[in-house]
Structure formats: C-alpha cells, structure tokens
Amino acid sequence: MSQDDSNMEEYPTEIHDYLTAFEKSLGSVDEMLKTMMSVSRSDLLQKLDPLEQAKLDLVSVYTLNSMFWVYLATQGINPKEHPVKQELERIRTYMNKVKEIADKKKASKLDKGAASRFVKNALWEPKAENEHTSKTPAKGKKRQRD
Length: 146
Description:
Blueprint: H1 3-8, H2 16-38, H3 41-46, H4 50-74, H5 84-106, H6 112-122
C-alpha cells in the first residue's frame, strides 16, 4: 500500500478534491508571501503613491486577519463570535473608502469649454435669408448676376 493510499483512508474521499485545492491555494499564498517578504517594506512604499500605499496596507492587514479567521476555525473557535469579525468589517469599510477615492480620481473631468462647443455645434440654428455662407450655389436654384 502506498503513502497516498494510507492518507486517503484517514479522511472521507468526498473531500479529497477540496483538500487538494486547499493545498494548492496554500502553496500560492506561500509563494506570494515569500515574494512580498523578499522586498523591504520601505523600498516598496517609496515606489508607490499614497493611494497605492493605502491599498497595500489594507490588503496586507485584511489578508492577515483573514488567515487568523481561518486559524480560529481550524481550532474549533467560531470566528463570527470573535473580535476578528469586527476588525475585518472595519478594514472592509476603509477598503470601500479607498475604492471611492480611487474611483473619483479615475473619473473623467469635464472640459466645460469643449462641452459648450459640442452643444453649440449640435444645436440647429436657423440661418438668415440674406446670409450666404456657401460659395457654391445650391442645386436647383439659378445663380443671380449683378
């Protein structure tokens, strides 16, 4: 009997796919953490503008608290009754505020001059009868000679 067969007997086979996906996700988290830890925080923050710094801080603290949530669940503690739930909600509130700021920053600015020219040119204006703007005579009309 191989090592995999003995491991399969320790837990129900129905959850094997879930555990495999969980193990893969843990590997991804581990790689991301190694990448983040390889660069000093001060070097990373110097390269970012204040809004990006806030996003990085919020994602970092949210990830840490989410991992603690999972840890509590694995220890048999209901995380919904733990203060970590309020902390996650508080962080989520700040994430929404930063998102609003980023959306306002991305929103296109109205060029009032261009908008008024666009509206002015889009509106129909009747022309005076004696005003000749065209150099070529209109089709079907006879040309007047002086």
